[in-house]
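Dear support,

I submitted the protein below through the web form. The confirmation email said the job was done, but the results page showed an empty box. After a refresh the structure appeared. I'm attaching both so you can tell me whether what I see now is the final result or a partial one.
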Amino acid sequence: MGPQSSGKSTLLNHLFRTNFREMDAYRGRHVLSQTTKGVWLAIAAGIEPLTLVMDLEGTDGRERGEDDTAFEKQSALFALAVSDIVLINMWCHDIGREQAANKPLLKTVFQVMMRLFSPRKTTLIFVIRDKTRTPLEALEPVLREDIQKIWDNVPKPPAHKETPLSEFFNVEVVALSSYEEKEEQFKEQVASLRERFFHSIAPGGLAGDRRGVVPASGFSFSAQQIWKVIKENKDLDLPAHKVMVATVRCEEIADEKFSSFTANEEWHQIEEAVQSGLVPGFGRKLSAILNSCLAGYESEAIYFDERVRTSKRKHLEEKLLQLVQPAFQLVLGHIRSGTVEHFKQAFDKALNAGEAFSSAARDCTRLYMVRFDEKCTDAVVEQANWDTSKVREKLKRDIEAHIAAVREAKLSEVTKTFEMKINEALSGPVEALLDEANDETWPAIRKLLQRETESAVSGFSSAVSGFELGEETMEKMISHLRDYARGAVEAKVKHEAGKVLSRMKDRFETLFNRDADSMPRVWTGKEDIRAITKTARSASLKLLSVMAAVRLDNEVDNIEKSLSLALLDSKSGSTVTDRSIISQGDPLASSTWEEEAARRSNNWLPPPWAIVAMVVLGFNEFMTLLRNPLYLGVIFVGYLIIKAVWVQLDVSGEFRHGALPGILSLSNKFLPTIMNLLKKLAEAGQVPQTNDPPRNPAPGSKSFASRVGTSSSVSSTGSSAVFPEDATEYSSTSKED
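What the results page shows now:
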């Protein structure tokens, strides 16, 4: 800065080896207009660090006049806002003068300084041109005194009324000889001054204590914004401007680094590899790429405002981590699924090797949870603080679910094994004991059940000891096993009871046709048929009483006595009294067969709602019958035929033992019964030819003995009457039987 035509451009060209336009000395300042217009910028040649040089338009020029000082103030404010060092060119003969050319310039500099809310500390170098013989030591105090007077008289805001000049400026004074008269000396002095600009920003240098530095990458944008604010004639808030420049530039740098990361080939390879499986060293590789990207940002944004730089770095880091997080989650998923598969294989291998279930589950779980943690550590990205605990918990749940499923399958397998053993141990012996059917049958069955159950429980407890089941669970499973053993016996007994009629017939035939030595009985006519029959009937009744109820609880009952009174002693005089006594203590004998049949026969009417429905829905059919009485005769005849067939087939008796046996029996008897009915109808239509009554043979005759002696006769009659009271009843096919 300096007055017009004071040699500013010449000084800059010699000092920084620039090429600013200079005034032609032969034509003079009075002939030509101002040489430098506006603000010119150049790079200092051969000076480190890189230094930008600005050549400002001269002050107090006649071209702008006395009143047009706006541009002078604007350019001065711009210079103070962007520069670290300001060279103020002034004539030596102006020092000490009240109306010297440098006074308005200094006033302008100090006035615009007040328009900066937080001024930057600037180095002011007063270059005294065309130095006379007066030594610099004599000139410098006078110049500093003039500068201090100007500073004191400049209006200041309240915050800076007592602020000394040194707070805003470092003042230096340099004197140079006349360039026209002592050119060589001038060049030597300029060269000496040039040396001070090398490493000028180092501590102790010309700009060593500068503040509010704008990085070179933001200088262009900063300068444009500063000039825009100055042109709008606004006060320049340098701190806010510094933040604004830092914000814009840091955002640009962050966007550039994010774009470079997304285009990074190594990142694309990792991203593609993660889709198909686990990537070894995922965390290390990705962290290196992220570090490189963030380091590039730091290196470019290091000179900007720290708060802005840190904020934008954090934002960039968040964007990068948000971009790579899906890949990280995929890696965790691969680690979890792989760990589960390896756990299953190791667990199955340990079980197959004979290791206890709980021990194998505990050891394998501990081992593979540690391996999962190690792999997660390898996959962790340094810059992220992502929590892997949720994935770890899910892995733990998967492992526990697999262990629970295997435990359930193994326990089920062990349980089924022991159930099969119980079935095998009880089925055959129970069937054999029931075949014997005597007073010791149920005590033997109970003893067998207890022995086999205890054996199975002992073996089961030993088999599941490796599962480390809780006491409650163990008791529940043992109780289930005991219940199963009891249920197996009950099921077997019920199954065998379904064949009780066949067993009774077989026992009756065996005892009736064979003697005490199990030899076929030879009928001589001297045998006591009544006694043999009664013995056989009693044995069959014994078998029925054994199978009539399940006696696993060792409770006393009167079933055998009830059956004996009801079936064997039905004709004795004490039957009614005995039945009433038994019926009071035994639910099975609470009613006689006749009473039960009578009770059921009295219940022949359908429910009332069914009667109403039949009346309403069958009204048309009822009217048809009234109009055609012939239908009534047909229906009546049909009813008689169906009733006769029902009685002859004994339908209710056949279905007493179940639906399927009843259907099979009726299908075999249906056709012979129909033929027999037709035959009886034909015989009833004929007139009897003789009035001689039929004769019954004597019970003790040989014909009767031979008739009873044949096994086929016994078998045939046995099917129609299981318990004949004597030989006559046994061989008879009369209506009474």
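Response: this is the final, complete result; the empty box was a page-load delay. The chain has four domains: 8-232, 241-386, 417-567, 608-673.
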